[in-house]
Design a protein that fits this description.
Elements (H helix, E strand, L loop, with lengths): L6 E3 L5 E3 L3 E2 L7 H12 L4 E3 L7 H10 L8 E6 L6 H15 L4 E6 L7 H13 L3 E7 L3 H10 L6 E5 L7 H9 L3 E5 L11 H10 L3 H11 L3 E2 L6 H7 L9 H8 L19
Parallel strand pairs: 3-4, 4-5, 5-6, 6-7, 7-8, 8-9, 9-10
Antiparallel strand pairs: 1-2
Helix pairs in contact: 1-2, 2-3, 3-4, 7-8
Family: Belongs to the aldo/keto reductase family.
Keywords: NADP, Oxidoreductase
Protein name: Aldo/keto reductase
Length: 277
């Protein structure tokens, strides 16, 4: 198995790659384009962007210029907080499609659970899904309470919940909740900050398997049945991060990494996010 053909099947039957390239904070223009092209050449078939990243256009150009057929690439983008609401979301979708240069978005996510807005936004996502304009819909940075509230009125359940997830923030209860409701959990910032690569359990396990610490952390997400999108703009690291399908972690490895949990976030908490800024 390789990164090109390793997929999970979402609740609606759509296949999504287990590992993709994240492009958060990657600069629009040459930096993003080179990263996306390198990823596609290295076998990646999933690219994760967002309107808030201001690099959708560059992602779209790289996809178009690559030698990989559009239908073989899984593109995720997200509706930002100030774009939420029913009509606003439909308009935001059109803007993202235009920038990406595509007719159908593979996965469209609500970026954050904006209080008083995300249910309205979800109704628009459902409309886009019913109209065949997106292949799958989901959310990002939602906790159990947000998902429960959303599902009270939803006609379609989210297929994905993309959250910060790494050994120092092993969101075990949220993972179990999503599994119970057939919502695929996806990890952003799966490598934590650089310091996580230097932590002793990670380094020891990497040495044991003759792999890099980053590869071990990516593999750990997969062992927990979590889709992952490590971000890099360095060609060597992009290629290296793809080489995680030729080994697996032992039970004791997974436990040692799980036990690193400190409920430590490197990004914001959805309950304290400055939604009014």
């Amino acid at each position: 198995m390789s990164i090109s053909d390793s997929v999970t099947t979402l609740a609606n039957g759509v296949d999504m790659p287990w590992v993709g390239l994240g492009v958060y904070k990657a600069e629009a223009g040459d930096e993003v384009k080179q990263a996306v092209k390198t990823a596609l050449e290295s076998g990646y078939r999933s690219i994760d962007t967002a309107s808030f990243y201001y690099n959708e256009e560059s992602v779209g150009e790289a996809v178009k210029e690559s030698h990989v057929a559009r239908e073989d690439i899984f593109i995720t983008t997200k509706v930002w907080n100030d774009e939420q609401g029913y009509e606003e979301t439909l308009e935001a979708y059109e803007r993202s499609c235009k920038k990406l240069g595509i007719d159908v978005i593979d996965l469209y996510l609500i970026h954050w659970p904006v209080p008083g807005k995300y249910k309205e936004t979800w109704a628009a996502m459902e409309k886009l899904y019913e109209d065949g304009k997106v292949r799958a819909i989901g959310v990002s940075n939602f906790h159990e309470k947000h998902l429960n509230e959303l599902m009270k009125d939803a006609k379609v359940k989210p297929m994905i919940n993309q959250v910060e997830f790494h050994p120092q923030l092993f969101q075990k209860d949220l993972l179990a909740f999503c599994e119970q409701h057939d919502i695929q959990l996806e990890a952003w910032r799966p490598l934590g900050h650089g310091e996580l690569l230097e932590r002793e359990p990670v380094k020891q396990i990497a040495e044991k398997h003759q792999k890099t610490p980053a590869q071990v952390l990516i593999r750990w997400s997969l062992e927990n049945n979590v889709v992952t999108i490590p971000k890099s703009v360095t060609p060597k690291r992009i290629r290296s991060n793809a080489e995680v399908f030729d080994f697996s972690l032992d039970t004791e490895d997974v436990k040692a990494l799980n036990d690193m949990n400190e409920n430590q976030r490197f990004g914001p908490h959805p309950d304290t996010f400055p939604y009014d800024q």
